[in-house]
Amino acid sequence: MKASTFVYLILMGILFVLGLLLLQQNVFGRLHIIKDNPDILNQSDNSVPTELTIRHRAWGEQTIEDGNEIQRITSLLKQMKTATNEDCPAGMTTFTGTLRFLNGTSWSFSLGEGMILNGRCIAAHPLSQTTMLKARLLNAYHNPQELSRQVIQAEEVILFEAGRSRKIDSRLRKVLEEKIKKAEPMTDYEEVGRALNSSDKPRVLQIARYANETGKRDNLMNITIYDALFSVQYMDDDNGNTFYLKGSLASVWKGAKRR
């Protein structure tokens, strides 16, 4: 190889390395600053939602892992975020949550009577979307493991039967917890109908997360007990959704302390 060719190759190599360093400094190494909340929202529009963590005021924290459900909730939030900026009145927050996207951005929200998304009020009063969103978030708590945890952590569990009420003590709560854990969700509503038709008069367990807030519906959950199944309803669900599980809780009132 001629000396001039060798020198030429060395110079080209040096120029190539310098070019890469310059490109990294000016493009890849540049710090991009997102100026405000609308920028965060827009950056996330074309990215894939990957994780949704929510926290209910009374019932605690949940992580929604179903990708389809995360996508449905994201679509609702995207519909709502186009609303004109409003002033949300001060009030109790039922849900808070964080939605994370594949590109590293995230949305934070709080939901009560109104809705705040990334610090911006997008619904000052209940709308069809906020009602639907609240119902979907409540669905995350409709599983046997979560229900059993709530029974144990609630400050008060009362059984209503034949016009009388009886308090469920810690021993019976433990029995109730184990029975609920073994229950199976029911999605065949024909089967649900047959089971309801063959049941005697139901009993109702009312679970209050905080004993001093029994008048607040987001603090209450009702479990209606039939012979071979039971139903669950959060009183703060504006859609009145009911969740059915196969399992017998008919023995839980025996030995309960009358109030």
Would you mind describing this structure in some detail?
The protein has 259 residues and is an alpha+beta fold. It is built from seven helices and 14 strands. Strands 9-13-12-11-10-7-8-14 form an eight-stranded antiparallel beta sheet, sandwiched between helices. It has a six-stranded antiparallel beta sheet with strand order 2-1-3-4-5-6. Helix 3 (67-80) packs antiparallel against helix 4. The protein is elongated and about 90 Å long. The N and C termini lie far apart (102 Å). The model is unreliable at 27-36 (pLDDT under 50).
- Radius of gyration (Å): 27 Å
Instruction: Summarize the helix and strand pattern as letters.
Output: HHEEHEEEEHHEEHEHEEEEE
What proportion strand? 25-35%
Strand count, sense and closure of the main sheet? Answer: 8 strands, antiparallel
**Morphology call:** elongated
Helix proportion: 25-40%
Total beta-strand segments: 14
Helix/sheet category: alpha+beta
In which order are the strands of the major sheet placed?
A: 9-13-12-11-10-7-8-14
Count the DSSP helices: 7
* Low confidence ranges: 27-36
- Terminal Cα span: 102 Å
The average pLDDT value, as a whole number, equals 82
